[in-house]
Automatic annotation (TrEMBL):
It comes from the Eukaryota. Belongs to the peptidase C48 family. GO terms for molecular function: cysteine-type peptidase activity. One of its GO terms (biological process) is proteolysis. Pfam families: Peptidase_C48. The lineage of its organism: Eukaryota, Metazoa, Ecdysozoa, Arthropoda, Chelicerata. Residues 72-155 form the Ubiquitin-like protease family profile domain. It comes from Rhipicephalus microplus (Cattle tick). This is Ubiquitin-like protease family profile domain-containing protein.
Length: 256
């Protein structure tokens, strides 16, 4: 095993998973991301997938590609804004499902868009034929995005994915994933639009209250996101920006 893999805590047990046919680990995902970035160094993203669980991704303002881990189900998928319209992200998910809420949270954390909304387009990605190969599809989709190709136009040879990835890791170089000529099953494309709020630039989630409102523009904010500022308000009027402060002062002046 290459010494560089030690930083990703890749073990023989992780590689055995590829042979045994069970779900692959975050170490395998991170190593695959490393190999893809090494081959396509101008591409941006490829952050440690474990950072997504605690929303610790570094903000990216330009084109990026990233594999995300989500719960319910325990699942891997790929997101990118390469080739997307402004304030839009493509999601490549090998399960035909609505976008998982924790994927939305991670995307918002990466981008921290200042726009009112985020559009997520579920692409016509290949549908996995079992419940264990999502990580392989996520890696293959990331690879082809980084290489400048569109995964939704390709038909992966699912039977060969594990053997191919294992060889790439052992060789320290990732190559094109095997394809088939026949048409593979696809997930249904769909678009979802999310309204963004607060300084965290996240959608409004059930049970999470926007408990502080700007006195000028009426935008809502989470007290937890405002931190000490919210704690020190104590019946004081809150305004979210300098421009809102000026508007509020004008309102007070005109009322007097």
């Amino acid at each position: 095993m290459l010494n560089v893999y030690k930083r990703y805590s890749l073990s023989d047990a992780d590689l055995n998973v590829l042979v045994q046919g069970t779900s692959i680990s975050d170490s395998v995902i991170n190593v695959a991301q490393y190999l893809i970035q090494k081959k396509y160094p101008t591409c941006v993203g490829f952050q440690d997938v474990l950072l997504g669980r605690c929303l610790q991704f570094t903000q990216i303002k330009g084109p990026f590609v990233q594999i995300l881990h989500v719960q319910n189900p325990n699942h891997w998928l790929t997101v990118t804004n390469v080739g997307a319209d402004k304030n839009t992200v493509f999601i490549y998910d090998s399960i035909d499902q609505d976008t998982p809420p924790d994927a939305v949270r991670q995307i918002c954390h990466i981008l921290k868009l200042q726009s009112p909304t985020l559009t997520i387009q579920t692409m016509k990605a290949q549908n996995q034929c079992n419940t264990l190969d999502c990580g392989l599809f996520a890696i293959a989709n990331m690879y082809y995005i980084a290489s400048g190709r569109k995964p939704e136009t390709l038909n992966l040879n699912q039977v060969m994915l594990r053997k191919h990835l294992l060889q790439c890791i052992q060789n320290g170089m990732i190559e094109d994933f095997p394809l088939i000529n026949s048409m593979a099953a696809r997930v249904q494309p769909r678009d979802s639009i999310y309204k963004l709020h607060c300084v965290c630039r996240q959608p409004q989630y059930s049970g999470v209250v926007l408990d502080i409102t700007c006195a000028s523009c009426s935008r809502g904010f989470h007290g937890a996101c405002l931190g000490s500022l919210a704690a020190n308000l104590d019946k004081k009027v809150f305004v979210c920006s300098q421009s809102c402060l000026l508007v509020a002062k004008e309102k007070i002046h005109s009322s007097n």
